[in-house]
Specification:
It is a single chain. The protein has 381 residues and is α/β, with parallel strands linked by helices. The protein folds into two domains: 32-332, Alpha-Beta Barrel (TIM Barrel), CATH 3.20.20.370; 343-373, no CATH class. The protein has helices spanning 2-19, 70-77, 101-109, 125-129, 133-150, 171-179, 255-270, 283-288, 290-303, 314-322, 327-332, and strands at 55-62, 91-94, 113-116, 160-161, 184-185, 189-190, 201-203, 221-226, 229-230, 232-233, 239-240, 277-281, 309-311, 346-352, 359-364. Strands 1, 2, 3, 12 and 13 form a five-stranded parallel sheet that branches. Strands 4-5-8-7 form a four-stranded mixed sheet. A hairpin with a 5-residue loop joins strand 10 and strand 11 (239-240). The longest helix is centred in the N-terminal third of the chain and has 18 residues, at 2-19. It is globular and about 55 Å long. The structure holds 2-acetamido-2-deoxy-beta-D-glucopyranose (2 copies) and zinc ion (ZN). One 2-acetamido-2-deoxy-beta-D-glucopyranose binds at residues 21, 23, 170-171, 215, 218-219. Keywords: Signal. It comes from Vanessa tameamea. One of its GO terms (molecular function) is hydrolase activity, acting on carbon-nitrogen (but not peptide) bonds.
Length: 381
Amino acid sequence: MKFASVALFLALIAFAYARELQLAEPCDEDICKAPMCRCSSVNIPGGLAPRDTPQFVTLTFDDAVTVSNIATYRSLLYNRKNKNNCPIGTTFFVTHEYTDYTIVNELYNRGFEIALHSISHKADQEYWRDASYERLMREIGDQKHQVAHFANIPINSIHGLRSPFLQMSGNTTYQMMASADLTYDLSWPTIKYTNPGLWPYTLHYQSIQDCIIPPCPTASLPGTWIIPMISWSDLEGGPCSMVDTCYYNPGPDNEEGWFNLILKNFERHYLNNRAPFGFFIHEWYVRINPGLGRALTRFLDMINNLNDVFMVNANEVINWVQNPITVDQYAKRQCKSWTPSQCRQTACNGITGNHTEKIYYMRVCRNCPRVYPWLNNPLGE
Ligand SMILES: *[C@@H]1O[C@H](CO)[C@@H](O)[C@H](O)[C@H]1NC(C)=O
Ligand SMILES: *[C@@H]1O[C@H](CO)[C@@H](O)[C@H](O)[C@H]1NC(C)=O
Ligand SMILES: [Zn+2]
């Protein structure tokens, strides 16, 4: 009894202490070590030489997964393998509205990663910039349960976040991520550390990363990894963190131009410190730029034929950074495995929510929700 109350007391102190944020101190590589900690730096994990380092490529798609964009994903990604014969990875940052959860289930069953991008995706930068811990728990923390529920995928397969409009809310975003048990954030652009590129790191200590879309975290926030969005350079050298924001681009039908642009950006990583190469894009942008679509296919065909390049789910990059091994060892490893998950496909027609007048059509892997799921009622009960 006495022991229990002392333990409770200590737990309460630990809790209060954890809520009180401390300013992050400069990072000391002798203290901050893998697998739990890593200083922000351009050094290759494990002190590997570039030629011994696997070049990871993280292709990501944002927003709702629907019957219209799945066609692109199927033709671009399905049955594709890395040179070591393991299936490729791609990460989907899914938003709730209009998402077809039976398709989310399909993507998961193909070995792709399902990650979070908010329930509402509200088109208001300040809403995200000024978001409180509570708001982010409703938008992101609850979305984790929502996606796992409707797509019937394991909740512990969901690790990542991309904030809408890449707008984080300083320390608060990472406090929320720690509570929601999320592993990594892939929303923070860098234009300073592109050559050589910034490797993923944790927030135990001060980050050296440039703050492009403030507010950025300055507290010590253990738990979360940052995968920096290393900017591309467009045709005039302007930075773009998402491919669809490259302002000076080759134009919709120019396959050769797009291929060269992709290659040039890729080589900045591959021929240097091999920081993970991000290809961050929206499906609609590929669709309205057929030349880019063809160039992307060509690029993937090319890298899928290189011994030291691996297209992986973003969370696999974190696993490697936590436990770096040489490219030879990596190529020989067993492929990732996952347990396929059933989908009892159900079409829910004409369901209404109470956040809007809209009528929704929704497909899920379970019984239909009572109302259209939304903030504060993520399961639509
Ligand atoms: C983050 O936390 C630190 C340490 O408490 C504080 O100094 C800083 O102002 C906070 N940043 C924001 C944007 O709230
Ligand atoms: C909307 O639904 C939620 C959850 O059922 C409820 O708490 C809230 O009061 C409802 N709002 C309106 C305006 O009906
Ligand atoms: Zn988005």
